[in-house]
């Protein structure tokens, strides 16, 4: 189902008047400045909607609403009430998932064909966090002081959370921030990426329908340099949860110094995907290809540095290139599309610029390497799935995050060598290993300095399993009980009883 089938593109409220509003304190309001900006459908290049341009004034309004809600009726919600609220929201997201996926397809080009996988992940996240709401507890701790002292800890919500999400997965990213905040009793001001605002706005409406009290979830649209920066620096925000580039992450760290707010940062990557000669190539070829080509390569943990053991290097890289050529590139709203467009004209220029750079550096394109301009694709921001061979470690396409469907294929000769080369990056978000040797798999998993190591798979994700980075890929975790702890303060209580 596409948005055109269910609503008619021109009739959906988030493509007309509703998108021109911010969601603050349970109300749809105009930006204080009265300004709007245009968003575009990346599959067609056509104007899609006018979006409210929130700024620091609107951030201040939203933070004030979130602070009031923190000590209002929301503070009296028991854990089972927060659990039930999250379960109601999960049911609503499930019911409206096709609509939400269609909005993302229109707004940032994500193929609607990925819907089933996305539904399981997004709805599963909310149901996992619902379970966590009733599993929060402190500890009774024996102490060694003379006399009679009783010591224990309490887990309390950290407070107002500023959530800043990226454009490459707006639906999933919004839920990944809102879910643990609601489970722990926090309140949220969510800043949506300017390139993809529509599904976060719709989620705000579904939160209201689920019974989330006013001020608990607020959604602001606008630019990172104004609204995002104001949220990161706001002195009444207790925590910022950010997903995006490492350069923006560094600015958020600086902005947080005013009140030493808690931070969790899921940042960029240049992840190694390592294929040994003993791997099952029939599984490794599609696995390694889609580790980069999925979502048009617009995934922070994409396995873009493809290390292939020398004896199978030529065969494997050719097979990956052939696999990429067979993928159907097209409009994200078309159910038959496998690879959608890049999100914007700016991103198109960035990716095609790196493709041209790869050629100048001496890399050999086995497939792709250019913008697609045939037929209807000429109107959108499409590039072909690309494989560069003869890549060396020093090339910029092997060192810098491209954020497009571009594989840099690099040969290696032995395990010690590839481990050193895999780790020779400032990033450490994801990694992959393909081998039939279980001992080799365990040794590689121990040796790679990254937050996730996928063995004979890639991008496997589950709400109960933590995800996050090493080094310049950030700190903190999303998913699992570690994620929930990011939204809690620990209070120690001492009682003298003698």
> Which architecture name of the largest domain does CATH use?
3-Layer(aba) Sandwich
How many DSSP-defined strands? 22
Q: What is the count of distinct domains?
A: 2
Overall average pLDDT: 95
Count the helices. How many?
Answer: 16
* Oligomeric organization of the protein chains: single chain
Which structural class do the helices and strands define? alpha/beta
Name the CATH superfamily classification of the largest domain: Aldehyde Dehydrogenase, Chain A, domain 1
- How much helix, percentage-wise, in residues? 25-40%
Q: What strand line-up does the widest sheet have? A: 14-15-16-13-12-18-19
Proportion of strand residues: 15-25%
CATH class of the largest domain: Alpha Beta
Terminal residue distance: 69 Å
Low-confidence stretches: 1-10
What is the name of the CATH topology of the largest domain?
Answer: Aldehyde Dehydrogenase, Chain A, domain 1
Radius of gyration, rounded? 23 Å
Q: Largest sheet, described in full?
A: 7 strands, mixed
How does the overall form come out from the CA principal axes? globular
């Amino acid at each position: 189902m596409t948005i055109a089938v269910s609503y008619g593109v021109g009739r959906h409220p988030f493509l007309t008047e509703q998108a021109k509003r911010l969601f603050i304190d349970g109300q749809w309001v105009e930006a204080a400045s009265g300004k709007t900006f245009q968003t575009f459908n990346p599959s067609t290049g056509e104007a899609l909607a006018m979006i409210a341009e929130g700024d620091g004034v609107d951030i201040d309004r939203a933070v004030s609403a979130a602070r009031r809600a923190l000590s209002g009726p929301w503070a009296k919600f028991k854990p089972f009430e927060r659990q039930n609220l999250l379960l109601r929201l999960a049911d609503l997201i499930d019911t409206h998932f096709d609509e939400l996926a269609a909005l993302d397809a229109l707004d940032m080009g994500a193929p609607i064909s990925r819907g089933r996988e996305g539904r399981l992940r997004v709805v599963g996240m909310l149901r996992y966090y619902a379970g966590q709401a009733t599993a929060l507890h402190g500890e009774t701790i024996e102490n060694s002081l003379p006399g009679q002292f009783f010591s224990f800890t309490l887990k309390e919500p950290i407070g107002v959370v500023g959530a800043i999400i990226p454009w490459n997965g707006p639906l999933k990213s919004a839920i990944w921030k809102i879910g643990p905040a609601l489970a722990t009793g926090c309140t949220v001001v969510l800043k949506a990426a300017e390139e993809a605002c529509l599904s976060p706005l719709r989620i705000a409406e579904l939160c209201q329908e689920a019974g989330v009290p006013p001020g608990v979830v607020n959604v602001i649209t606008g630019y990172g340099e104004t609204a995002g920066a104001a949220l990161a620096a706001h002195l009444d925000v207790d925590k910022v949860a950010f997903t995006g580039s490492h350069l923006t992450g560094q600015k958020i760290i600086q902005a947080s110094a005013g009140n030493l707010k808690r931070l969790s940062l899921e940042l960029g990557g240049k992840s190694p995907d390592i294929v040994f000669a003993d791997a099952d190539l029939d599984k490794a070829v599609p696995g390694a290809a889609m580790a980069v080509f999925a979502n048009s390569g617009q995934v922070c943990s994409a396995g873009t540095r493809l290390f292939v053991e020398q004896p199978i290097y030529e065969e494997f890289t050719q097979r990956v290139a052939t696999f990429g050529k067979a993928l159907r590139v097209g409009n994200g709203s078309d159910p038959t599309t496998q690879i959608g467009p890049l999100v914007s004209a700016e991103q198109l220029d960035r990716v095609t610029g790196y493709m041209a750079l790869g050629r100048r550096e001496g890399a050999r394109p086995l497939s792709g390497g250019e913008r697609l301009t045939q037929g209807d694709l000429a109107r959108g921001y499409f590039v072909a799935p690309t494989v560069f061979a003869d890549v060396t470690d020093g090339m910029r396409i092997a060192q810098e995050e491209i954020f497009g469907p571009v594989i840099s294929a690099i040969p290696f000769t032995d395990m010690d060598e590839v481990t050193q080369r895999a780790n020779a990056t400032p990033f450490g978000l994801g990694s992959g290993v393909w081998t039939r040797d279980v001992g080799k798999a365990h040794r590689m998993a121990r040796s790679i300095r990254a937050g996730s190591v996928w063995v004979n798979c890639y991008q496997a994700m589950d709400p109960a399993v933590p995800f996050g980075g090493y080094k310049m890929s950030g700190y903190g975790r999303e998913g699992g009980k570690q994620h929930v702890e990011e939204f809690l303060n620990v209070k120690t209580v001492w009682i003298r009883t003698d």
